[in-house]
Amino acid sequence: MVKSSCNDALINSRLHMVLSKAVSQSDDSVHSMFASRYCRTSLPKFKMPENSTPKEAAYQIINDELMLDGNPRLNLASFVTTWMEPECDKLMMDAINKNYVDMDEYPVTTELQNRCVNMIAHLFNAPLTEGEAAVGCGTVGSSEAIMLAGLAFKRRWQNKMREQGKPCDKPNIVTGANVQVCWEKFARYFEVELKEVKLREGYYVMDPEKAVEMVDKNTICVAAILGSTLNGEFEDVKLLNDLLLEKNKETGWDTPIHVDAASGGFIAPFLYPDLEWDFRLPLVKSINVSGHKYGLVYAGIGWVIWRSKEDLPEELIFHINYLGADQPTFTLNFSKGSSQIIAQYYQLIRLGYEGYKNIMENCQENAQVLKEGLEKSGRFNIVSRDIGVPLVAFSLKDNSSHNEFEVADMLRRFGWIVPAYTMPPDAQHITVLRVVIREDFSRALAERLVNDIEKVLHDLDALPAKISAKLAIADEQSGVAHVHLKKTDLEVQREITTAWKKFVADKKKTNGVC
Ligand SMILES: *Cc1c(COP(=O)(O)O)cnc(C)c1O
């Protein structure tokens, strides 16, 4: 009897353990998601967890962590599209499981890409005869497009040098010091020397005269930018073309031009149709454009177009035969999504020339509103140009007590993401703030931003000058004797910029400009 009751107690307690375990396991469906054990432990960061997580919990946890990302619509640092029509969102979601490279399986997607290539080539005035197919392809972005264009120039130049029995082991490319980082990547990855034309204060793009001076027999191409990343300014491609034609005639070389129209390629044809920067100029052999910038598609699409078949060496092209047709491909990667290509085709036919023009005009007007608001404050120099990509780049007239980095920092409190950065050599003592105006940046937001910048200035005026105080302390600590020579404004500005550059570089390694 006694024995049996003891056994009962044991069984009971075991049963209880099993039951309580079962209850705690079911708590994720019974109790609040946030109180469930999945949300009560910290997330794995280095090793894949042993066990699975229910889908609702996984979703919630990741969704919540992502809340701390900035709001893309208020990210004024980027040219990249942050809004599309719901109809296009739907087309993209419907195609999210299509691999672009499966051309046999998705011939319509391939066809849409080819239509985009042709439309863009015509937009850039490629010399095509009636019914002739354009030469070009879709890429992940302008970076891949530039790698491909650069490789084509390198191979063409090598072939020519070999034919002439000349050495071809020291190729170089001439650009302005304002080039986007992808050109530096191209140069390093594919072993081409990058010869950069230096900038100077007040002139932040490549000087065509200096660029042509730098061209030598090993120059595979001169890369001009239509819409400098730093201040949106268009480089003078026509002048570059004319000067280079002259030099080619004198020397017998045939140095070509590539136009990096990542941001300007979908601006100039609509706002400045008479500006000659594209295939109307004989030396322009290839052009890239980011579909995900003013092409108005979400991140993940770029285009490269060649003037003609002769400009793309045949040995770089791989041929895929499907359904009896020949599909030439020239890409760095193999698989990629189809959605962006479908979305680009949507935008091209949905908006048409009229729609793009309308959107770009609106962007330009909003840029004007912002620029005028900033000018009215009397505190800023405007570094961007009226003709160019719709953005406003500006620097403080007086940054001796508070500077652009502090303005950027304070604007974050209002939700705005506005980058501050220093210019490349020889204008590295200039710091600018840059606001990119995209389709979804409305007039109301532009006016609000002006107000918020004014509030920031007002708040900063009330604060002690952080950096000059820091400099004074640093000087004292390092025992620097205070020689009371009056520093020039430029010296003071340089000193402050250097100190801030260091301060910011220590805090984060990228400057957030893309
Ligand atoms: C954005 C940009 C690039 C890089 O383009 P991605 O599409 O982001 O790869 C290259 N050049 C210029 C001038 C740019 O503005």
Structure description:
The modification N6-(pyridoxal phosphate)lysine is found at residue 293. Catalyzes the production of GABA. The calmodulin-binding is calcium-dependent and it is proposed that this may, directly or indirectly, form a calcium regulated control of GABA biosynthesis. There is one protein chain. By secondary structure, this protein is an alpha/beta fold. It has two domains: 97-351, 3-Layer(aba) Sandwich (Aspartate Aminotransferase, domain 2); 372-507, Aspartate Aminotransferase, domain 1. 44% of the residues lie in helices and 13% in strands. The chain has 15 helices and 13 strands. It has helices spanning 2-30, 37-40, 55-66, 86-94, 107-123, 142-163, 181-189, 208-214, 237-251, 268-271, 339-377, 404-411, 443-462, 466-477, 489-507, and strands spanning 135-139, 172-176, 193-197, 219-225, 257-260, 284-290, 302-306, 318-322, 325-329, 380-382, 391-396, 420-422, 431-436. Strands 1-7-6-5-4-2-3 form a seven-stranded mixed beta sheet, sandwiched between helices. The chain has a four-stranded antiparallel beta sheet with strand order 10-11-13-12. Helix 4 packs antiparallel against helix 11. The longest helix is centred in the last third of the chain and has 39 residues, at 339-377. The protein is globular, with a radius of gyration of 29 Å. Residues 17-23 and 481-485 have low confidence and may be disordered. The structure holds pyridoxal-5'-phosphate.
SSE class: alpha/beta
Measured as a percent range, the helix fraction is: 40-55%
What is bound: which ligands? pyridoxal-5'-phosphate
**CATH class placement of the largest domain:** Alpha Beta
Shape: globular
Largest sheet: 7 strands, mixed
Cofactor: pyridoxal 5'-phosphate
Protein name: Glutamate decarboxylase
Modified residues (N6-(pyridoxal phosphate)lysine): 293
Family: Belongs to the group II decarboxylase family.
